[in-house]
Amino acid sequence: MSDPAQTSSLDQCPPISVVALDFKTKKATDITIDQIDDAHRNGSFCWIDVDLAKADESVPAALVRLGLVPTDVLESAQTDEPSISFGRHENCVHLVLVGMQWAGDQLDLERLDVIISAQSMVTLHRADIGFLRAVKREYLTDFVRHAASPSFLLYELWDHLLDNFVAVQKALEDRVVGIQRALAGNPDESIFRDSSELASQLLQYRKVVLPARTVLTDLSLRKSAFVSEASQAFLSNMAGTVERILQDILVDRDILSDSLNNYMSLVAHKTNRVMSKLTVVSIIFLPLSFLCGVYGMNFEVLPELKWEWAYGAFWIAVLVIASSLIFFMRRFRII
Fold it and tell me: Quick one: 121 and 223 in the same domain?
């Protein structure tokens, strides 16, 4: 038997790890998959964690043979896309949890299949999952101090998953603030690409988190042999946390959208001011261009051309026209 205060083999992320939890003696014991039946007969609850990408093909078959994982659930874990969901089977419940982690500037989804039956919990995944790693690091302490039933493991999974949601939402919020500040300065065209990518990530994040509210509500309200009533109260509080996360992400989307709209309005305003100035210049030079066009025509008879003061009169007319136009435009607040 291992000291429950110490780290179990689940922390080492091997292809398959099995821990037998005795809730009477508060002991956690590392066992093999062949010892699961004996542990069940002794009244222990077993947590079996399997990395399907590393485990031998015989391991999934053994889980099905022992009745720990239904065949259709195993196939779903190996082929389906990541999406939080909850299903009830005759002798177990199947829960799909989806965490997120950053891969550079992109969000990667991490699928974890959780199968809970009367005496065991099986977790199936195909990669190292951040929030599951956090559960393995801390669950033994909570097992010794607080756990009264196997449902505490379900609480631990959801608790660390929500921590993952909050951390990702905080990172997205920081990026929104960064783009907002960049838009307030003198950004280049790359800001539109960054804004589009961030908007897509916010939408992706919401699509991942949104089903969690429904699943948590279902787990907290519907009675189940695999979820204790004490745990249901905590799960209900978590549904409220998910609701607040969804509200925060909507606020972030609105801030991003409003920032872009304000920036585009500012650009349009600056463009309008430039166009107004160009229009004023055009209004002034339009009659002057007319005069130049008239006296630039190749007619043989243009009396003004032979007049001694014609050149000076032309410039006087130019000044009078230009001054008059400027006066009237200022009076009517055009400029």
Answer: yes
